[in-house]
Amino acid sequence: METRVIGKSVPRKEGRKKVTGRARYVDDLSFPGMLHGVTVRSPAARGRIRAIRFEGEIPWHEFTVVTAKDIPGKNCIALLIEDQPCLAAEFVNHPEEAIVLLAHHDKYLLEEARRAVRIEIEPLPAIFSIEDSRARKEIIWGQDNIFKSFCVDKGDVDGAWASAAFVVEGRYETGAQEQLYIEPQGMIAQVSEAEGVTVWGSLQCPHYVHKALMVLFGLPRERIRVVQTETGGGFGGKEEYPSMIAAHAALLARKSGRPVKIIYDRAEDMVATTKRHPSRTRHVTALSRDGRLLAMDIDFTVDGGAYETLSPVVLSRGTIHAAGPYACPNVRIRSRAVATNAPPHGAFRGFGAPQSVFALERHLDRVAEAVGIAPDELRRRNFIREGQTLAVGQVVKEKVDMNGLMERAFALSGYHAKRKKFAAANSDPRGAIKKGIGFASFLHGAGFTGSGEEYLASEVAMEAMADGTVHILAGSTEMGQGTNTIFAQIAAEALRLDCEQIKIIQPDTAYVANSGPTVASRTAMIVGKLVETAGLGLLKSLTDGEFLQPGYTAADFSRACGEYVAKHGPLKTFVKYEHPRDLHWDDLKYSGDAYGAYAWAVYVAEVSVDIRTAEVRVNDFVAVQEVGKVINPVLAAGQIEGGVAQGIGFALYENVVWQEGRMVNAQMTNYVMPTSVDLPAIRVYFEEIPYGRGPAGAKGLGELPLDGTAPAIANAIAQATGVDVRQIPITAETLLEMLEGVHA
Amino acid sequence: MRAYLPAYEMETPRDLEAALGRMASEPGVWRPFAGGTDLMVLLEAGKLPHQKFLNIWNLAELRGMEVSSEHVTLGALTTYTEVQRNKTLLREFPLLCRAAAETGSVATQNRGTLGGNIANASPAADSPPALIVYDAEIEIVSAGGSRWVHYASFHTEYKKMNLHAGELIRRIRLLRTHAQWKQYFRKVGTRRAQAISKICFAGAARVEAGRIADVRIALGSVAPTVLHAVRVEELLRGQRPGSAVLQAAQDALNAEIAPIDDMRSTAPYRRNVARNLLAEFLEVLAG
Amino acid sequence: MPERARKIRVSCVVNGGAASFEAYPMARLLDVLREELKLTGTKEGCGEGECGACSIEMDGALVNSCLVPALQAQGTKIRTIEGLAIGGSLHAVQQAFLTHGGAQCGICTPGMILAAANLLARYPQPDDAQIREGLSGNLCRCTGYMKIFESVVAAVRRAETRA
Ligand SMILES: Cc1cc2nc3c(=O)[nH]c(=O)nc-3n(C[C@@H](O)[C@@H](O)[C@H](O)COP(=O)(O)OP(=O)(O)OC[C@H]3O[C@@H](n4cnc5c(N)ncnc54)[C@H](O)[C@@H]3O)c2cc1C
Ligand code: FES
Ligand code: FES
Predict the structure, then answer these.
(1) What is the pLDDT of residues C55-89, one digit of tens each?
(2) Fewer CB within 10 A of the terminal residue: chain A, N end or C end?
(3) What is the pLDDT of residues A162-216, one digit of tens each?
(4) Is A444 found in the same domain as A558?
(5) Does domain C92-162 have CATH number 1.10.150.120?
(6) How close C85 comes to chain A (CA, Å)?
(7) Which is nearest to A233 in space by CA: A194, A186, A277, A169?
C-alpha cells in the first residue's frame, strides 16, 4: 500500500522545542505566590506512629503543615483498590512512607524544617523477602500477605512426567530496577473554591491521577483537572506514583490557599518511588527424547512491596508471558504477588514480563544442555506456529515465523560461527578474556491484558478547525516514546494531509478524551487505531456533505473545513474502542485471547568477560523483531535501542542495595546505569507483517526490548564462562565468586 | 538541594597571602574551595559540615606546571583535563594521566583538581595510587611558611592526613626518574566511565636483566587510606617477575590490605581482584 | 536559626550578553540560571555531577552547573542551550538531533547537545571512541545513545560539506 507519511521518519513533533531548551517541564513552571512543598517520611519499615514533633529553631507558624487529618475525602491513593494511604495516619508499612507535608516559599528553610520534624515510631516486626512473606513470618497485608494469585492450566501437567525422557528443574531470580527517568518526579497544584483542584505535572496517565484526586477530595469529576507537562521519561515509573505527589501537592495547596510545587530530588525519587518488582521463578520442564516440550510447570512470585498498587496487573502480564512463544501441550503456571515492608514496587516497562522471560529463556538454555541439543535447536523444535495454542489457551491466528526471525538474527550476528570460535578459544586456560554469544526468543502482548481494553473503553476525539488544522484530543501522553509524532502521522495518513497540519492537544482532563493510560505498548496499536478511525470519520463528514472531493489538496481540505464549520458549527468526531467480537477472555479460568496481537523477537548478545575482575562487556547486540507496520522507523528503532540499553542495565549494572526495606544506594553515583561507553552498537531490525487491527497495520513495541535483552546476555555469559547464571543483575561480585567455583 | 544555603559563606581572597592570612586569623574556620566537585556534592546532600569557604580557584600561585631537569611540579589546582594535555606527563607519568582520564567525565575533569583529590582524602580516590608510585612530594603552605612532605606518608588514617588548620596544599612535585620504568594502571569501577573505584591498582618497576631492580605499588579502595604496598615491594625487589614469586607476593598483598564490604562492592571481591591485578602487573613486568 | 550569609552580586556574560544577579555565594549556578535568569533549558537530573543534564559551557569548558557555586561564576563567560541557536537557525548539532532522533523525552537533550557541541569544538572530526568518551558524563535513559551518536556524526558531516 502506498503511504504518504506512515513508514517515514518524520521528525519528532515537539523536537524543536526539545533541542532548543524551550520545552517546559514541570520544574520549569512557576506560578505567582507559589510555595514549595516537601514530604516528611517514615524512618521505620513498619510500626505505629507514636508522636510527631516539630522541633528546632524553625518559625513553624510560617509553614503550612498537612497530616492525614487534613484530608477532606478518603485517605487513600485510589487505584485498583484503596489500600494505600495518601499519608500514614496510625501505622507505617514501609520505610519512607509519607506522613507529614510541609510548604513554605523558601526552599532552603523548608529543607531545614523537614530535618526538624521528629517522627516517633514504635516498631513492629517487618518482613523484607519473598521467602519470609510466603512463609508468613508476619502477616503484614490481608490474611496471607498475598495481593493476587493466578492459575493457568493447559492440558495435564501431572500426567506428562511419566512419559518424559528428561525433566529439568531450575530457579531464577531478578532484582529490583529503578526506572531512572532523568527528570525526577514533580507536580504543581492549585486549589480554589471556584475552580476546584488543578494539578500540572510529569506523568503518564492523567486519568489515574484524576481518579485518585476525586476520591481523596470527595469531589465530582468536573471539579478536578489534571494537566500533563512535558515529561522527561517515565518507563512506567510515572504511571501510578504521580497520583501520590499530586495528592500531596493538592493537599498543601488546599490548606495554604496558594499554588504548591513539589519536586523530588534524585535521592528522594529513588528512595521513595516505585521500582521493578523483584521476582523468583521455578521451572520444572518435561521433554521427550527428541527435545519436544511435554510439560512446563512454572511457579512465579513477585515482591509487591507494602501496598497492592499495580502488582496484580504486573503479575498478570508476567504470568501470561512465563511460557513464552512455545507450543507445549501441558502447562501449569502458579503465580502470586506478595507483600513485604518495602515501598510498593510498580510499573516498569515490560511489566512483569522481563522477569518471567528472563527465567524461561535462561532455563531453556539449560534444558537444551540437559537434552544434549543446541539451544537454537531446542527452540526450533518448539516454536509456536499459526494455529497452535499458547499457554493461556490462545490460538495464534496471526502469521508468525519465529524460526525466520531467529535465522535472521543469527545471520546478522554471525551467531553460529562465533559460537564455535568462542568455544574453541575459551578452552585455552591462559586466556583472561572469555567470550560468549547467546540469544533469547520471546513475544510481547500489545495492549491491556484479556478484557482490559474492553473495560477501559478508550475514547479519542478529533476536531477540524475552520482553518483546516486538525486537533487530536486524547489523554495519551508523550514522554519521549513518540506519541505525538505517530498520532500525527496516523491522522495525516487517514486525512491525506501533512503532519504539520495536525496538532496534538496537551493532555488535560478538562479537554481531552480518556484514551486510557499510556502503558502496556497500547498507545500506537489501540489508541492509534482510534485516531485513524476518528480521522476517517472527519473525512466522511466532509465528503458526505460534499465539502470535499476525492483527490483534494491540503488547501482544499482547509477550505472545506471552513465551509463546514460555517454551515454546521464545530466539526468533531468522537470514537470509542470496540472490542473485537472474536477475542474472548475468561478472567476466572485465566484463559483465552490474552492480547489482540503480539510482537515477536529474537535478540542476540555477544559478551566478553575478564575473568580476573569478572567485568562483563557487551560487544555486540542484534535485535530482530516483528512488530507489524513500523509507523516511524527512526522513532521505532530509538524505542528498541533505548529498551535494550535498559535491559543491559537490568542484566549487568543496576543493583538496588536494600537495607531493611530501604534503598541505600539511592544516588546516581551508586546506582549505576550504562553510560555511552558501556554499551555496544545496538543493531535493530524490523520484520513487518501488517496487523489487520492496528492503524496502518502497526502493533505495539515499547516494552518488547526489555524482555529478551537480559536473558540473551545471561546466556552469552554462560557460554563465555561456564557459569550457570541464575540471577540478575549479574554483578562482578557474584560472577567472580561463581567463576572461582567453575575454575577451582 | 538539601543544605540550608544561607548558612554557607564563601569569599574570594585576592592572592595566596590573603588566603593564608584569612585562614590563620580564624584557625579551622575557613576551608579552601577549589573545583567544588567534592564539596558541592556534599552540599547538595545536606552533608557539608563546614560553612565558611575561601574560593582558591583563581589563585595563580596554586596553578601552572613547571618542568625542570629533575622534577615536574604541578600546582594544586591542576585539573584532570590539564594533566591529560601535558606532553611531559603523558610521556613520563602515564599512570597519573590514566588516573585523570578515568576520573569522572569531561565536565568533572574540567573542574576537579589534584589538590582537592588529595585533600578530600577518600580511600577510593584515583590519583593517589599514581602519586604514591611516583613518590610524589607535596608542598604545604601556611601563613607561617612552607614545608615539603612525602605524599606516601601524608594520609594517616581514614580521612585523616598530615594537613593542619590554616594549611593549604600548594604544589605537587614528581621526580623524573620513572620514564624508563614499566608501568601498569588498572581501575576497576562499577562501569567503564564515570565510575567510583571498587579497586584501583598502580604499579611501576625498573626491570634490569630480567629482575625487578626497584618497584612501587599502590592501591585504592582496599584499606582506610590509599595503600602503599611496601611489603609486596620488598618481597619483589631482586626477584624475577614470574610464577615463582607470584604466590608469595599475593600472600603479602593479602596480608597488607584490609578491604571492606560497602554498597559498591565486597571485601572478598576486592581481595580477589587485588591478587589478580598483581598477577597481571607481574605479567606486564615479565613481558 | 543559623546566621545568614549575605547574598552577593555576581556579574558575568551569559549567551553573549551581560548578566548580573544576586545569590548566596554557594547557590548552585544551575539554580541561578533557572530561577534568576529564567534560563530553564538547563535541567537538573541528579544534583551531584553524575547525569550531565545541567551541563553548560563556562569559559569554553564543559561543566556541570549543579556543582558550580554562584560566586565562581563571577567574570566568566557562560553558554547555555538557549545560546546555541543563532537567530532562528539551529546549531548543526541541534539540527542533527532533530533529524536523527537524538532527542526522545528531551530532558537530557540540552546538556547532551552542549556536551556534543563542546566535543566538536575540541575534536572537529571525532572518532567513535572520542564521541563515546566525550558524552560519557551525559546520561540518557531513553535512547541507548545510538541515535545520539548518529546525530553527532551527522553534525560533523554537515560541517564538512559546508567547509
Ligand atoms: C561525577 C563525579 C565523578 C567523580 N569521579 C571520580 C573518580 O572517578 N575518581 C576520583 O578519584 N574522584 C572522582 N571524583 C571526585 C573528584 O572530582 C574530586 O576528588 C576532585 O579531585 C576534588 O577536587 P576539587 O578541586 O573539585 O575539590 P573541592 O571539592 O573544591 O575540595 C575537596 C576537598 O579538598 C580541599 N581542598 C581543595 N583544594 C585544596 C588545597 N589546595 N589545599 C588543601 N585543601 C584543599 C577542600 O577543602 C575539600 O575538603 C568525582 C566527582 C564527581 C562529581
Ligand atoms: S544535575 Fe548536574 S550533573 Fe546531574
Ligand atoms: S532523551 Fe530522555 S533521557 Fe535522553
Answers:
(1) 999 999 999 999 999 999 999 999 999 999 988 89
(2) C
(3) 999 999 999 999 999 999 999 999 999 999 999 999 999 999 999 999 999 999 9
(4) no
(5) yes
(6) 7
(7) A186
Is CATH 3.10.20.30 correct for B61-175? Answer: no
Residue of C nearest to A107 (CA): C31
- State pTM to two decimals: 0.98
**Pocket residue to mutate for ligand 1, from B78, B117, B154, most atoms within 8 A of Cβ:** B117
Q: Are residues A415 and A534 in the same domain?
A: no
Same-domain status, A417 and A513: no
**pLDDT tens readout for residues A518-556:** 988 899 999 999 999 999 999 999 999 999 999 999 999
- Residue A607 pairs in a beta bridge with A436, A618
Dihedral of CA atoms B108, B111, B116, B117 in degrees, nearest 10, equals 30
- Name, in order, each residue with C-beta under 8 angstroms of A26's C-beta and a sequence gap of 6 or more: A186, A187, A188, A200, A201, A202, A229, A230, A261, A263
- The verdict on A551 and A635 lying in the same domain is no
Q: Whose CA is nearest to atom 25 of ligand 1?
A: B35
Contact A1, A488 (CB under 8 A): no
Please count the CA atoms within 13 angstroms of the CA of A615 that sit on its side-chain side.
21
Residues A468 and A570 in one domain: yes
A198's torsion region: left (phi>0), alpha (psi -120 to 50) or beta? beta
Question: How far apart, in whole angstroms, are the C-alpha atoms of residue B38 and residue A180?
Answer: 23
Number of domains in chain A: 3
**Residues of chain C with a CB closer than 8 angstroms to some CB in chain B:** 2-5, 24-28, 31, 47-50, 52, 55, 61-64, 66-69, 71-72, 74, 115, 118-119, 133-134, 136-138
What CATH code is carried by the domain that includes residue A550? 3.30.365.10
Given a contact as 3+ CB pairs under 8 Å, which chains touch B?
A, C
C2 closest CB neighbour out of B7, B36, B57:
B7
For domain C8-83, the CATH class is alpha beta
Q: Is CATH 3.30.43 correct for B5-55?
A: yes
Task: Determine the distance in angstroms separating the CA of B228 from the nearest CA of chain A, rounded to an integer.
Answer: 21
Q: What is the pLDDT of residue B247?
A: 97
Inter-chain contact B191–A676, Cβ cutoff 8 Å? no
Domain coverage including residue A265: 31-124+180-272
In chain C, which segments carry CATH 1.10.150.120?
92-162
Domain boundaries, chain B: 5-55, 61-175, 182-286
Cell of B253: 598483598
Cα–Cα–Cα angle for C131, C133, C135, rounded to 5 degrees = 70
Distance A25 CA to ligand 3 centre (A): 13
Q: Regarding the domain with residue range B182-286, which homologous superfamily does it belong to in the CATH classification?
A: CO dehydrogenase flavoprotein, C-terminal domain (3.30.390.50)
Residue C160 scores a pLDDT above 90: no
In angstroms, the CA B207 to CA B238 distance is 9
Inform me whether the pLDDT recorded for A461 exceeds 60: yes
ipTM surpasses 0.95: yes
